[in-house]
Design goal:
By secondary structure, the chain is of the alpha/beta class. The chain has 2 domains: about 10-175, P-loop containing nucleotide triphosphate hydrolases (Rossmann fold, 3-Layer(aba) Sandwich); about 215-365, no CATH class. The chain contains 13 helices and 5 strands. Helix 5 links the parallel strand 3 and strand 4 (about 150-155). The two termini are about 40 Å apart.
Amino acid sequence: MPQFHGNDVALSFLSRLTARGALPSTLLLSGPGGLGKALAGYSFVKSLVCEKNRGDGSSGDGELRGMEACGECANCRALETASSADFVGIRPKTAKLTLKHVREEHNSFREAYLYPAQLPYRFFLLEECHAMSEDLSNTMLKLLEEPPERTLFILVTDRPSLLLPTILSRSLKVRFLPESAESVQAWLAAQGASETSAANAAFFSQGRPGLAQTLLADDDLLPKLAGTMSRFAGMLKKRPEARGLVPLGEALLALADMVRDTLVRIEEGEVPDGYYLLPWRRPRPVVEGDDGAPAVTSERRRELSRDALQLVLDWLRLTLWRLEREGGPAYAARSAPLFDRATSFLDVNLREEQVVDYVLAKLPDARM
Ligand SMILES: [Zn+2]
């Protein structure tokens, strides 16, 4: 499987499902962002439909077993080129995943009740499924109450608590967890990242391989992140002064902007060599004469802005913890006020974003 690292327990659970051939109607893949849950779900689908990976998976007569796929048979190619109607990958374009979006872009799940045309099953993979609007959740629930035959829903989320309890209870749950920073570092180094980059990406991603790769997608991002955090650490080590706060706050916001720009570029499909984009995340080819919607809507941009600010907050916390571990509780007491002020600086920005999202969500017509 390309670009995947860790979570052996979750993967072996999924590969046992493949081997058994008896599928649930709904799988819920949950855990923090940046672990590769959607990639694992997609690879699971691929291993289920790959023409060279059929059979019970234990006899070993085929060359592929478990969560593997040849990548060359008709089914593998149909998935990889996003040309099979039997697989639908859905990713929210705005803060909410609405019934309107699914209706317009994916024919409203109506096909869920049809027999698959090409693949052995029909699949709907919903990323960030906690963003489902109320009407979409209810549609989903109706589907799960009478699950269509030969259709599998794969729900992916880092916030399962936001799902309807009735959806949760009908799903087979698979949890994903972060790896140790050391193992992510070794994995990145094996892929050719320099020692410093691998160490920084592993540390700041907190053992999340996908996030580590995102941090590596822009050459300037990690050095800037490490630099800003060591400035922050330097201020914490000395006697924190109000004087240094404004430039620090500005540096933190500039870092958040840089992170957001990287996230936007990845969504627009501008990725470095070797960075694997899931087929449904790839930008659609531009049709001539069709202005269409931009790959990243302004609402989605705002969402990514918020994610970026959240990441910077996490990094501040991480830096503080590291200092405390190295310097003892004395640092904690001394640096708490500075930490609070730095985080409130970011919090204000974070909250502004949330207020705008809230208003947009409440007033759907305001988007027009
Ligand atoms: Zn195949």
